Amino acid sequence: MAIKLVIVDDAPFIREVVRHIVDSSGIEVIGEAQDGQEAVELVLSLRPDVVLMDLVMPRKSGIDATKEIIAAHPEIKVIACSTLDQESMVMKALDAGCCHYVTKPFKKEELIATIKAAAAK
């Protein structure tokens, strides 16, 4: 059974890159959101296995969106992603409930392995 993934990023290009990376890897993209508020609404209605969550977005940050998603559905695994490779941002993401953290630009094999590992938890 395919892993159901929601991609959350304010950059359409990044969402397209992720979609291309996971295509034919046993991961099905079931939705995309462009900000944290939209992410919460989409994830709560679609109930994916994994969410790839950008941390810095308009309207609601990925950190705040993650907290809301995990509070409502702790079984949903959230992977934080950002271009910011800073220890404090990693700690905030993990404290919010993220199970993994990846940095942009993505390495194909690493991203797929991280999504699969999150889904297996």
Are there runs of 5+ residues with pLDDT below 50, and where? none
Reported for the largest beta sheet, the result is: 5 strands, parallel
Overall shape: it is globular
Gap between N and C termini, in Å? 15 Å
Q: Percent of residues in beta strands?
A: 15-25%
Assign the structural class, choosing from mainly alpha, mainly beta, alpha/beta, alpha+beta, or little secondary structure: alpha/beta
**Arrangement of strands in the largest sheet:** 2-1-3-4-5
Oligomer: single chain
Whole-number radius of gyration? 12 Å
> Average pLDDT value?
92
- The counted number of beta strands is 5
Task: Please count the helical segments.
Answer: 5
Helix and strand succession? EHEHEHEHEH
Helix proportion of residues, in percent? 40-55%
Molecular structure report:
With 121 residues, this protein is α/β, with parallel strands linked by helices. Helices cover 46% and strands 23% of the residues. It has 5 helices and 5 strands. The chain has a 5-stranded parallel beta sheet with strand order 2-1-3-4-5, sandwiched between helices. Helix 3 links the parallel strand 3 (50-54) and strand 4 (77-82). Helix 2 runs parallel beside helix 3. The longest helix has 13 residues, at 108-120. The radius of gyration is 12 Å and the shape is globular. The two termini are 15 Å apart. The model has no long low-confidence stretch (mean pLDDT 92).
